[in-house]
Write a structure and sequence with these properties.
Structural class: alpha+beta
Signal peptide: 1-27
Domain PpiC: 192-293
Largest sheet: 4 strands, antiparallel
CATH class of the largest domain: Mainly Alpha
Number of strands: 7
Number of helices: 12
Keywords: Isomerase, Rotamase, Signal
CATH topology of the largest domain: Triger factor/SurA peptide-binding fold
Radius of gyration: 23 Å
Enzyme class: isomerase
Pfam family, one: SurA_N_3
């Protein structure tokens, strides 16, 4: 069984693993991880656990296992023993999350501004994809619909609000404690390596056959030539790009390493500010990239890291309180197993 203290720490951290799964699915090339096969027989709607009458389905378990696999970047292929361990861990998380959610129903609701947080989380994921079609495809590949993804975020927000109301107000962090923690853990608090870039995307139209790809490539090469001859990148993007960023002159905004398709990321981070890439091919089409700014990773000052320092210390103090409460909830709960583990 997965250690309870670690499992509860994951619950109260509100990791939104499903969002990480959707983000991972945006990569153009086939990911290095593989969706682990279910260790169970049956259908996606089959119950694998009941929590006070609420069913946790095989599909939910499979998604949770897949999300854990992606989140931890586990090497493939996974052994049957590792899959069994991940399933057991995922069941613990799903059960404890459901117990906290049920407990929250009588006292806690969505936090103030919760719907805005849901919308912002979805919007952030949209911006990591080259088109709405790619975004929805990633959700589908994660085994979800958009309403299901939104509801999972709402559920996590309700749980987080409940945990904060019940335990957070009794937990304090002193200023000298926070400063000492920062000094002892400076390497934990760094900005990520990021960049800001613009792109012109020439999508592959038609049926996607070789002749369609060749036409798209030729269009991209012509546009690249025009850019390198001195025409405005932003004006050409507005007129010719097939990416929604055309409305902003191709501007993709800032992004961290790991958030773009690997081929696009490699091209962007190889550039110097103001430089233009060669044509880069992905399944979306042919891309021309212009680097606006690159920011190297650096240590955060205490003021920059302060909120994260306080949050980390507070979470650590809350963890044993939540663990004890979840143990109490489990003791009172009616937990009925569904399909047995092999």
């Amino acid at each position: 069984m997965y250690p309870r203290s670690k499992a509860v720490a994951l619950v109260i951290a509100i990791p939104l693993l499903l969002l990480s799964l959707v983000a991972c699915n945006q990569a153009d090339q086939k990911p290095q991880w593989q969706s682990p096969p279910s260790l169970r027989e049956g259908f996606p709607t089959d119950p694998v656990q009941k929590v006070n009458g609420t069913i946790i389905t095989r599909a939910e378990l499979d998604r949770a296992v897949k999300a854990l696999t992606v989140n931890r970047q586990l090497r493939q292929p996974l052994s049957p023993a590792m899959l069994r361990e991940l399933e057991a861990e995922a069941i613990v998380q799903l059960v404890e999350s459901e117990l906290l959610y049920q407990a929250a129903q009588s006292t806690a609701t969505m936090p103030r501004g919760g719907e805005r947080q849901v919308s912002e989380a979805i919007a952030r994921e949209r911006t990591r994809h080259l088109s709405d079609a790619a975004f929805y495809r990633s959700i589908e590949e994660a085994g979800l619909t958009l309403p299901q993804l939104e509801q999972s975020i709402r559920k996590e927000l309700v749980i987080g609000n409940f945990v904060e109301q019940r335990f957070g107000r009794s937990v304090g962090v002193a200023a000298d404690e926070a400063e000492a923690f920062y000094e002892a853990n400076r390497e934990r608090f760094r900005t990520g390596c990021s960049a800001r870039a613009s792109q012109i995307l020439v999508a592959i139209s038609g049926s996607g056959e070789e002749r369609d790809k060749e036409r798209a490539r030729e269009r991209a090469e012509v546009l690249l030539h025009r850019v390198r001859e001195g025409e405005s990148f932003s004006i050409l993007a507005q007129s010719h790009s097939d990416c929604p960023s055309k409305a902003r002159g191709g501007d993709l905004g800032y992004f961290n390493r790991g958030e773009l398709d690997p081929r696009l990321e490699q091209a962007v981070f190889a550039l110097k500010p103001g430089e233009i890439s060669d044509v880069v091919q992905t399944s979306y089409g042919f891309h021309i990239l212009k680097l606006t700014e690159k920011r190297a990773s650096r240590p955060e000052s205490y003021q920059e890291a302060k909120s994260a320092v306080y949050a980390s210390l507070k979470k650590g103090k809350m963890a044993p309180l939540v663990a004890a409460y979840v143990t109490e909830l489990r003791g009172r709960a009616k937990l009925e197993p569904g399909l047995p583990l092999p």
